[in-house]
Amino acid sequence: MDLVELMLAGDRNVRAHDSSHNLADSARSFLNCVAGWDEFTVEPASPAAERVLGAAMMLNPAIRGGRSTRTVVLDVNIASGTLVANAARRVRETVQPEWLIAVVINTLTNADMRWSIEGVDSLFVCGASSDAGESHYSSQHSLSVHAL
What we know:
The protein is α/β, with parallel strands linked by helices. 36% of the residues lie in helices and 23% in strands. It has a 7-stranded mixed sheet, sandwiched between helices. The relative contact order is 0.16.
């Protein structure tokens, strides 16, 4: 996939949320990814993620936005991880997190189990079609990536 195709795919994913059905599906996907996690806040990495977070909060009022010692950074798409890294930096400038986990709905590239995103402890790719599962690397420059 070249850069233009990648950008178009990301744009399609975002525009799909103009349909309330698709927005609700993404919100449910996010909620499934974080099911069982307790006492955390969610920091959206993009305006598109803000929409998904709002829908998720309507489906599950226990979900809270904001920054805390247990923060989940949410985004709709991931390609390079720049938006997620920027959101993680905003969180770490405000609080000293116990953990900071990123959850993305779609990956625009193959889920790379060697991804490194500054400030993120683990990455969950909810809509990943990869059957690679999860991987843990001990390198300080990699993170735990989970394709769900």
